[in-house]
Design goal:
Radius of gyration: 17 Å
Low-confidence stretches: none
Helix content: 55-70%
Mean pLDDT: 96
Oligomer: single chain
Distance between the termini: 26 Å
Number of domains: 2
Shape: globular
């Protein structure tokens, strides 16, 4: 159960009500995370920058690779809510999230996501040099910036124990939490 209440449409006013209306028009629903964020409009607005960052990431690496990076970050970070969104999205494009076939760039992006979560100060020069074979500095900033935003999203959901959205409940058994933290403690 979430540690904060979810903002409900009936109690929303001003910019918060406008945000509800926008989300309902855009996607037909408001996710549990967004309902939690809407308790503070400034925080909601800051987190909505994730979509701008994701869209730019898709321009740089392609949609599948963007989903793979997001999935890598979210799974390594142990965020069931975020991981399940990307499991669902990967399945929707015909992938098996438990048995992904990655090309060289996707493998590098997946490794970056894992390394950033596990130890951002420990991201290796070797990995960065390999990324630079495929991406320029501007693109690397896009990639790392998105991964950092994904980590913030994971942390928000984990700390506040945001409930799974109803659409994710049928696939919750597909989430396999990383165990690296337990091994390192």
């Amino acid at each position: 159960m979430a540690r904060v209440k979810f903002m409900e449409y009936e109690e929303a006013t001003g910019k918060v009500k406008e945000a509800f209306d926008y989300q309902l028009k855009k996607s037909g629903n408001v996710t549990n995370m967004k309902k939690a964020l809407l308790n503070d409009y400034a925080t909601y607005e800051a987190f909505m920058g994730w979509y701008v960052s994701f869209d730019r990431l898709v321009e740089v690496v392609g949609k599948r690779a963007a989903m793979i990076l997001a999935h890598s970050v979210s799974t390594t970070n142990g965020c069931m809510l975020c991981s399940l969104f990307f499991i669902r999205d990967l399945k929707a494009i015909g992938d098996d999230p438990k048995n992904l076939k990655l090309d060289e760039k996707e493998q590098l992006l997946s490794q970056l996501g894992m390394q950033m979560v596990k130890d951002p100060n420990g991201v290796t020069d070797e990995l960065m040099n390999n990324l630079k074979k495929h991406f320029n500095d501007s693109e690397i900033v896009t990639i790392v910036g998105f991964a950092a935003q994904m980590m913030a999203t994971n942390n928000f959901n984990a700390v506040l124990k945001i409930d799974l959205d109803e659409s994710l409940i049928p696939i919750q058994g597909e989430f396999e939490k990383e165990t690296w933290r337990a091994k390192n403690n």
